[in-house]
């Protein structure tokens, strides 16, 4: 019987010393793929370090800072070369390269699996009848613990497949307000405005040229695309026929991916939940999620 369902998060891979932290592991790779290495440091201003809450903060770009990638690439209409005009647009293509960074990051972690040792606590915990919803891209469960592949759902994709998912929850895009210098003299007054409204006003009033407008539009579209669709149908299909009595959360921060937890709570209303907390922040996240989702039967370790 499929009575137990495990939810596996990044903390599980980290407990096996795999290089799966956003800082420094993903950060080092991501900066390598940028023409401007500090692109991600410019990205937002709500937190000192974007890597502390990377996926959620992708929804909150700060275009006052991000427009620095256009400095030195203003269109030259006196030149006979088109590249002297559209170079500003090319800057969008050369920065914010999330996808190649993600694939190298996951492959790098997968390559370390041959150095990983079994943890006795997991050997004693897992059995052949368990089901696993794995938020990690790596095959730690399959390669280290011998869990059958058909018992594991890599809900956000897996190494070796062209299906990796990373980003903020779709629908949560909320850029920081653009600080517009009303007099355009660098001394203010400044007006807060939505970035799309700003560039539309500028092009309409002939205060922005076509190339600059296109560059801004492309940048907005690019960062807005850093979202992920909930894979709820995939999860529903995986759980067909399952009679889950216990849901065990191991290594997940419980700070994101709430739609999956909500689905499980509604589908298995009488299941007992067991949360493994690995620090105080995670413990607070778990308690907040339990309250919001109205999970009734639970224990936090």
Summarize the structure.
The chain is an alpha/beta fold. 41% of the residues lie in helices and 12% in strands. The protein folds into 2 domains: 4-19 and 117-167 and 230-300, TPP-binding domain (Rossmann fold); 35-96 and 177-228, no CATH class.
Description:
The protein has 301 residues and is of the alpha/beta class. It has 2 domains: 4-19 and 117-167 and 230-300, Rossmann fold; 35-96 and 177-228, no CATH class. It is built from 14 helices and 10 strands. It has helices spanning 10-14, 22-32, 39-42, 54-57, 63-66, 83-94, 98-111, 120-125, 140-145, 195-204, 210-224, 232-238, 258-267, 280-293, and strands spanning 4-8, 131-134, 152-154, 168-169, 178-181, 190-193, 227-228, 246-250, 272-276, 298-300. The strands form 3 sheets. A 6-stranded parallel sheet has the order 3-2-1-8-9-10. Helix 6 (83-94) packs parallel to helix 11. The longest helix is centred in the last third of the chain and has 15 residues, at 210-224. The chain is elongated and about 70 Å long. The model has no long low-confidence stretch (mean pLDDT 93). This is Bacteriophage abortive infection AbiH. InterPro entries: AbiH.
Distance between the termini: 25 Å
Sheet with most strands: strand arrangement: 3-2-1-8-9-10
Main β-sheet description: 6 strands, parallel
The CATH superfamily of the largest domain bears the name TPP-binding domain
**Proportion of residues in helical segments:** 40-55%
The average pLDDT score comes to 93
Radius of gyration: 23 Å
The CATH class assignment of the largest domain is Alpha Beta
Reported by name, the CATH topology of the largest domain is Rossmann fold
Please identify the structural class as seen in this structure. alpha/beta
**What's the number of helices?**
14
| CATH architecture annotation of the largest domain | 3-Layer(aba) Sandwich
Number of strands: 10
Shape: elongated
Organism: Marinilactibacillus piezotolerans
InterPro entries: AbiH
Protein name: Bacteriophage abortive infection AbiH
């Amino acid at each position: 019987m499929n009575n137990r369902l495990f939810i596996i998060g990044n903390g599980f891979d980290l407990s096996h010393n795999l290089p799966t932290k956003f800082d420094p592991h993903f950060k080092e790779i991501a900066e390598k793929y940028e023409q401007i290495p500090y692109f991600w440091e410019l990205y937002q201003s709500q937190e000192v370090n974007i890597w502390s809450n990377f996926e959620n903060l992708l929804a909150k770009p700060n275009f006052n800072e991000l427009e620095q990638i256009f400095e030195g690439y203003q269109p030259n209409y006196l030149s006979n070369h088109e590249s002297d005009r559209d170079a500003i647009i090319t800057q969008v293509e050369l920065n914010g390269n999330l996808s190649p960074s993600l694939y190298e990051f996951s492959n790098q972690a997968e390559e370390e699996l041959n150095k990983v040792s079994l943890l006795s606590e997991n050997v004693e915990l897992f059995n052949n009848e368990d089901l696993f919803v794995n938020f990690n891209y790596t095959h730690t469960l399959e390669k280290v613990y011998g869990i059958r592949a058909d018992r594991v759902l890599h809900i956000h994709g897996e190494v070796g497949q062209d299906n990796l998912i990373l980003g903020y929850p779709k629908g949560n895009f909320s850029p920081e307000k653009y600080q517009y210098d009303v007099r355009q003299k660098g001394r203010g007054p400044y007006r807060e405005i939505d970035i799309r409204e700003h560039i539309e006003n500028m092009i309409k009033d002939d205060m922005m040229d076509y190339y600059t407008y296109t560059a801004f539009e492309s940048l907005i579209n690019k960062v807005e695309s850093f979202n992920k669709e909930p894979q709820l149908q995939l999860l529903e299909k995986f759980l067909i026929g399952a009679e889950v009595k216990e849901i065990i959360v191991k290594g997940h921060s419980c700070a994101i991916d709430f739609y999956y937890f909500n689905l499980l709570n509604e589908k298995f209303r009488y299941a007992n939940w067991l949360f493994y907390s690995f620090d105080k922040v995670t413990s607070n996240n778990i308690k907040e999620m339990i309250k919001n989702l109205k999970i009734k039967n639970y224990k936090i370790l």
